């Protein structure tokens, strides 16, 4: 990946990761690596065969025996036709995805798909043109959601609805207090999309949501989740979004227990570089996100050194240079001025510096596996903080507050307001430049805090800017241009 001295901690001295390295070779072991998550079953020459997927081992289908794990010799199949992954999903199940790498595409349940990554649900049929058809079987089942637009619960057999020009399926990708996200198909563009359906009760709520959506539909950046279209009906606003198939950053970070639930420095730098580029674009357009956290940073597709997309703009604000008195976001990622404004309604804060504080917290988490103001964790474990975050997620889905959650949140708020980030020497002694960047973002006075633009010029980023830009151009910009 990035050739200088940054590398995974167990890398032998002298070993460098070049830009020509296969990034799949850099994948680290993850929890449950021996668990089979799914299989794709086909019948060839009268015999049943299966392509088996686990969390650590993608499968490649194609004609090239040196590069593919499942060989199909039909001339209509490309040398490397498609790549299959299984990754953990934010709600505890798995995401099975297929990346089309072919010259003539694939078919999903009879719909033609080209040059994109799709999600395969249990029972879906993936067909190589004029060749084999595979039925996807999920061995690790997703939990069923209780509240969706497919009332009262998702049907036992997959169903679908036509909303505008899209086919929205009953397959639920996520749910919260006010919205659900379903898998949908855009038959005109030959791609899957995500349909976020927001339940609205009052007429003014519809206008408020649509105002935000119209602003965000003008945004185009490789690291920001794109809104394609919207539809309204009596009870819902449906937002059609760019589909991401790699899960979220929080799940990706916590899926590395062997390294202390943290990323290697090189990978954290590549992710942070993208995050700052996306933030800088938003702030240049006077938009603040106001709920920036690893759960709202999506991985476009599975694999190491991922392309990330900033998502979930439900709390975003235009004219972000103006002070707001409407505090929103997650306490763990709020700046001191935001935490103070929670309990003192006459106080306000500005969205753009708040985003930069949140980015500093995210970088700290990626490099250390813990929260900068969660001093309660032992030196070798961040389980207390991760438990707190998991409960915070449950709250967004309507669960009740526990006494321990309230107590921990109160301590965390006090530390954010008055305390300093805790940099444990054994983790940060070799990360001096990265620490300087974190410290510049976690400045209590928002007027002195680093901006997204100045953070991109930090020494930790700048010392490898050419390598970062080269990788970004090859893996992200090139993919966007050919999409």
From TrEMBL:
Q: Which residues form the FHA domain?
A: 59-113
What keywords would UniProt list here?
Answer: ATP-binding, Kinase, Nucleotide-binding, Serine/threonine-protein kinase, Transferase
- One Pfam family it belongs to: Pkinase
Q: Which family does it belong to?
A: Belongs to the protein kinase superfamily. CAMK Ser/Thr protein kinase family. CHEK2 subfamily.
Indicate what this protein is called per its UniProt record: Meiosis-specific serine/threonine-protein kinase MEK1
Q: What PROSITE patterns is this protein classified in?
A: FHA_DOMAIN, PROTEIN_KINASE_ATP, PROTEIN_KINASE_DOM, PROTEIN_KINASE_ST
Read off the lineage from the record.
Eukaryota, Fungi, Dikarya, Basidiomycota, Agaricomycotina
What Gene3D superfamilies does the entry give? 2.60.200.20, Transferase(Phosphotransferase) domain 1 (1.10.510.10)
Give start and end of each Protein kinase domain. Answer: 167-461
Q: Where does ATP bind?
A: 196
Q: Which stretches are annotated as coiled coil? A: none
């Amino acid at each position: 990946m990035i050739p200088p001295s940054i590398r995974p901690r167990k890398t032998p001295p002298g070993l460098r990761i070049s830009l020509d390295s296969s990034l799949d070779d850099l994948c680290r072991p993850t929890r449950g690596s021996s668990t089979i998550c799914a299989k794709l079953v086909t019948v060839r020459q009268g015999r049943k065969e299966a392509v088996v997927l686990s969390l650590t081992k993608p499968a490649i289908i194609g004609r090239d025996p040196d590069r593919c794990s499942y060989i199909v010799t039909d001339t209509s199949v490309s040398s490397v036709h498609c790549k299959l992954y299984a990754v953990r999903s934010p709600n505890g199940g798995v995401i099975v995805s297929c990346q089309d790498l072919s010259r003539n595409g694939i078919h999903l349940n009879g719909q033609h798909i080209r040059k994109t990554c799709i999600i395969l649900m249990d029972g879906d049929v993936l067909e190589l043109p004029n060749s084999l058809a595979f039925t996807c079987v999920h061995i690790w089942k997703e939990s069923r959601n209780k509240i969706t637009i497919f009332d009262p619960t998702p049907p036992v057999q997959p169903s679908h609805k036509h909303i505008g020009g899209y086919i929205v399926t009953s397959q639920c990708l996520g749910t919260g207090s006010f919205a659900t996200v379903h898998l949908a198909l855009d038959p005109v563009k030959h791609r899957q999309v995500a349909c976020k359906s927001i339940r609205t009760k009052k007429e003014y709520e519809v206008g408020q949501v649509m105002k935000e959506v119209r602003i965000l539909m003008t945004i185009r950046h490789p690291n920001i989740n794109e809104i394609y279209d919207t539809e309204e009906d009596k009870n819902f606003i449906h937002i059609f979004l760019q589909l991401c198939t790699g899960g979220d950053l929080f799940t990706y970070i916590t899926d590395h227990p062997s390294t202390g639930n943290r990323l290697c420095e090189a990978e954290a730098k590549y992710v942070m570089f993208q995050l700052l580029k996306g933030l800088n674009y938003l702030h240049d357009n006077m938009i603040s996100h106001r709920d920036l956290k690893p759960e709202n940073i999506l991985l476009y597709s599975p694999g190491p050194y991922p392309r990330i997309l900033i998502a979930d703009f439900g709390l975003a604000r235009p004219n972000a240079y103006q002070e707001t008195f409407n505090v929103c976001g997650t306490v763990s990622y709020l700046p001191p001025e935001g935490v103070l404004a929670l309990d003192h309604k006459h106080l306000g804060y500005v969205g753009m510096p708040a985003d930069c504080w949140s980015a500093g917290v995210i970088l700290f988490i990626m490099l250390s596996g813990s929260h900068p103001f969660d001093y309660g964790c032992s030196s070798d474990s961040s389980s207390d903080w991760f438990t707190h975050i998991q409960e915070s997620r449950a709250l967004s889905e309507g669960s009740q507050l526990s006494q321990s959650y309230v107590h921990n949140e109160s301590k965390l708020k006090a530390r954010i307001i008055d305390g300093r980030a805790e940099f444990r020497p054994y983790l940060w002694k070799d990360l001096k430049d990265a620490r300087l960047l974190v410290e510049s973002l976690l400045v209590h006075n928002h007027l002195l805090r680093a901006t997204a633009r100045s953070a991109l010029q930090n020494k930790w980023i700048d010392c490898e800017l050419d390598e970062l830009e080269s990788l970004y151009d090859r893996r992200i910009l090139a993919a966007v241009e050919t999409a």
